[in-house]
Design goal:
By secondary structure, the chain is α/β, with parallel strands linked by helices. Helices cover 43% and strands 13% of the residues. It has a domain of 121 residues: Alpha/Beta hydrolase fold, catalytic domain (Rossmann fold, 3-Layer(aba) Sandwich). The chain is globular, with a radius of gyration of 15 Å.
Length: 175
Amino acid sequence: MALAPALFHRTAPGFECAYTDLEAGRKQAVQLTAAGLTADLHAAWRYLCTHTSRIAAAGFCMGGAISVVATTILPIKAAVSYYGAPRYVEALAGGRWGDRVHGPVLFYWGGRDAHIDAAARSVVATEMDRAGKPYVNVLFSDADHGFNCDARSSFHPASSAQAWALTQAFLDAHV
C-alpha cells in the first residue's frame, strides 16, 4: 500500500506541474510550514495504521526530504530519501533533527546533482553520525538529480535499477 499526501492542498488545491517547471514547484514548496506538514503526516499515519503496522516513508526530491522529516515526527520503521534536499529537512524538522529520527534511513544522491553538492550531502551524514542513528548513504557518481524518474532527461537507468533493488532490500530488512 502507498499513500501520497497532497502537500500543497492548503496553498494550491489540485496543484500539478511538469517535472521541468521547477520554479512552480519551488513556489509551492516554500509555502509549506512545519505545522501544516506535521498535521498532514499525522493524518497519513492515522489512516495507514488502520491498514498495517508496517509503515515506512519514501520520497523523491522534496518528497525525499519529507520522508526524513516524517521519521522525526512519527514512529515509522524506516525511511528512504532519493535526493532529498538537506535544506528542506533542516527547514521543516529544525536543528538537531537527527536526534528525533525513529528508524534507519536510506539516502540516495547523484554525484552530478548541481542542486545537492558534496557539502550538502555531508551535512546529512554528519547529523546522522552525531545523533548515532543508523543510515545508508549511497552516491551514484554518474547520476544527476532525478536519476530515478524516467520522465526526466536526467533519468539514469543503471542507477535507477540498482537503487530500486536496494530500496526493496532495505525495506524488507527494516519494515
